[in-house]
């Protein structure tokens, strides 16, 4: 089956994930602090150079996950390629990514915050840390006020700003979102959209994307399309 072209629509955020061909360290080894710090520096530099607005990020031993709005249809591909080249030259030689990165368009006002919570709670889901803000290579600490020095990496989405009138309100309200977590149905929809590389949106927003997106935004219905009866057949069956 031919792979789908990249899905893009202007001014629409994307959830992106790329898995490494080889983890930065074995599971039994200590956390690769130096490699993760370098990767975070590269992410900040390349995202700024390519004008990609980072709303959330997560660097793990085996993957990169981002929530971002690119300025054009090529910017995210260029960002992931730039990070791959830097890793190949500065961390390990040879193939960096397991395959193509996955991405999904995210509906603002409805799915941006759930996608951000999903991204930032991955270290907890994977039993790496006990709370999201404890993982240093993530936007969670900046969003909750635990490490404001990391805020330079962020271009907060309006959905995050709408959680409160002041930085303290936003941080406190967002902490509650992280603590509450997501319903299993929300997690399922996010992962289906990301791994299927579709849009994560409700029907009205999907309809609005038809004239803006670079390709189909949701899977085609299963099975063969229904046949439209011929006029002659309809006429013959009419008494």
Structure summarized in a few sentences:
The protein has helices at 33-49, 75-90, 112-120, 122-125, 140-144, 158-161, 167-180, 184-196, 203-209, 231-237; strands at residues 14-19, 53-59, 63-69, 102-106, 199-200. With 239 residues, the chain is an alpha+beta fold. It has a single domain (14-214), classed as 2-Layer Sandwich (Alpha-Beta Plaits), CATH 3.30.70.
Structure description:
This protein has 239 residues and is α+β, with helices and mostly antiparallel strands. The protein has one domain (14-214): Alpha-Beta Plaits (2-Layer Sandwich). The protein is built from 10 helices and 5 strands, in the order βαββαβααααααβαα. It has a 5-stranded mixed β-sheet with strand order 2-3-1-4-5, with helices on both faces. α1 runs antiparallel to α2. The chain is globular. It starts with 13 loop residues before the first strand and ends with a helix.
Overall CATH class:
Alpha Beta
At CATH level 2, the architecture is 2-Layer Sandwich
| Secondary-structure element series | EHEEHEHHHHHHEHH
Structural class: alpha+beta
Which fold name fills CATH's third level, the topology?
A: Alpha-Beta Plaits
Strand content: 5-15%
**Neighbour order of strands in the largest sheet:** 2-3-1-4-5
CATH superfamily: Transposase IS200-like
Can you give the mean pLDDT?
Answer: 88
Question: What distance separates the N and C termini?
Answer: 47 Å
Q: Looking at the structure, what is the overall shape?
A: globular
Q: Write down the domain tally.
A: 1
Q: Using DSSP, what is the number of strands?
A: 5
Low confidence ranges: 230-239
How large is the count of helical segments?
10
């Amino acid at each position: 089956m031919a792979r789908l072209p990249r899905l893009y629509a202007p001014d629409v955020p994307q959830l992106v994930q790329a898995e490494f061909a080889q983890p930065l360290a074995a599971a039994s080894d200590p956390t690769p602090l130096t490699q993760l710090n370098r990767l975070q520096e590269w992410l900040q530099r390349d995202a700024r150079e390519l004008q990609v607005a980072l709303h959330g990020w997560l660097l793990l031993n085996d993957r990169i996950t981002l929530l971002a709005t690119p300025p054009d249809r090529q910017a995210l591909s260029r960002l992931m390629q730039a990070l791959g080249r830097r890793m190949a030259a500065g961390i390990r030689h040879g193939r960096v990514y397991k395959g193509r990165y996955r991405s999904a368009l995210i509906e603002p006002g409805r799915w941006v915050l759930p996608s951000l919570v999903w991204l930032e709670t991955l270290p907890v889901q994977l039993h790496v840390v006990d709370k999201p803000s404890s993982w240093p290579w993530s936007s969670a600490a900046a969003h909750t006020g635990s490490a404001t020095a990391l805020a330079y990496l962020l271009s907060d989405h309006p959905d995050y700003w709408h959680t409160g009138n002041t930085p303290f309100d936003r941080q406190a309200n967002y902490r509650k979102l992280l603590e509450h977590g997501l319903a299993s149905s929300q997690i399922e929809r996010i992962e289906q959209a990301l791994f299927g590389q579709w849009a994560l949106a409700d029907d009205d927003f999907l309809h609005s994307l038809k004239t803006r997106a670079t390709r189909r935004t949701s899977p085609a219905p299963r099975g063969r399309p229904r046949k439209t009866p011929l006029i002659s057949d309809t006429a013959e069956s009419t008494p």
